[in-house]
Amino acid sequence: MHTRSEPAEREPDTSARPPLVRELLLVAGLFLVYKLGRQAATGHVDEAFHNAGHLWNFERAAGLPGEGTVQGVLLHSHTLVQAANTYYATVHFPATLAFLVWLYWRRPLHYVWSRRILTAITGAALALHLLFPLAPPRMLHAAGLVDTGQVYGPTVYGDSPATDSMANQFAAMPSLHFGWALVVAVGLIVATRSRWSLLWLLHPLLTLFVIVGTANHYWLDSIVVSALLAIAYAALRLPRTPVLPPLSWPSTVPAQGYASPAYARAGVRR
After folding, report:
1. Is residue 1's pLDDT more than 50?
2. Half-sphere exposure of 49 (CA within 13 A, CB side)
3. Closest CA to 16 of 242, 258, 243, 270
4. Could you tell me the pLDDT band of residue 23, with boundaries at 50, 70 and 90?
5. Residue 176 φ/ψ, nearest 5 degrees
6. Is pTM beyond 0.70 here?
7. Can you tell me the distance from the alpha carbon of 51 to that of 135, in angstroms, rounded to the nearest whole number?
């Protein structure tokens, strides 16, 4: 009686793993372009607030729930709102970096695919930041929302956009916080394929709750980045795992001058 054991976790295909130094430079360059691109989109104050007013009115006309509904949940607890601010400030970059490192070592093909998706979505987002500057809902008087970062802390932004040298506060559309979180979840679901894989979706769902509840993003910021991601996934397919050729078996014809077992038993030589 033979028992069948579960196969062990497959080893990574090291032939698909790109050179480490090159990837470090590429990923570092991606983060640098992200930061510099956001800086290039600073200014345009009047346009950013004009766009924010139109977007707010469009959301209400479309029947989307007010962002204040989510913020009301956070404001019931001082601890909860501070935890949301901390999540917004500290999880975005480290989670994405840890995701890329794990894929690089354990799932090289998935790493290359996800890195391309991240590059595409970041480039598209930066272009939109330049073309459509947008003040976040925490700055929009008509929204009536609280800037939770400034009131409760911690915050990654300066007191005013004019004095903020670290980030562009008018780069709300689309939300790369949500976009990158969605890439992480999709990448891990595809790479792990376990019965618990869908739990990775908790990361983008929690991110969505945080970015809306802290009044850093509108609903449409996440909807737009999701549409851009759908296009990126349709255009950039996951490479297929290379299939090794079948093993070649030794020839069944005996070498000249030697007898096969059958010939030997018969006393015949070739």
Report:
1. no
2. 9
3. 242
4. confident
5. -75, -20
6. yes
7. 8
pLDDT tens per residue across span 206-258: 999 999 999 999 999 999 999 999 999 999 988 776 544 444 444 444 545 44
Ramachandran bin of 61, using left for φ above 0, alpha for ψ from -120 to 50, beta for the remaining angles: alpha
- Please state the separation of Cα 125 from the chain's center in Å: 13
Residue 134 has φ and ψ, to the nearest 5°, of -145, 125
Judged against a pLDDT cut of 70, whether residue 163 lies above it is answered with no
Chain-centre distance of CA 180, in angstroms?
A: 3
- Backbone φ and ψ of 222, nearest 5°: -80, -35
- Kindly write down the DSSP assignment for every residue of 18-61, as one continuous string: PPHHHHHHHHHHHHHHHHHHHHHT---HHHHHHHHHHHHHHHHH
Label each residue of 79-144 as H, E or C: HHHHHHHHHHHHCHHHHHHHHHHHHHHHCHHHHHHHHHHHHHHHHHHHHHHHHCCECCHHHCHHHC
pLDDT at 218 (0 to 100): 97
3-state helix, strand, coil in the chain (%, to 5): 65, 0, 35
115-137 exposure pattern, b = at least 16 Cβ within 10 A, e = fewer = bebbbbbbbbbbebbeebbbbbb
Per-residue buried b or exposed e for 69-93, using 16+ beta carbons within 10 Å of the residue's own CB: ebbeebbeeeeebbebbebbbebbe
Nearest to 100 by CA among 179, 37, 183, 189: 183
226, 144, 142: which is closest to 181 by C-alpha? Answer: 226
Average confidence score pLDDT of the chain: 83
**Residue 170 · residue 44 · CB < 8 Å:** yes
At 57 the pLDDT is 96
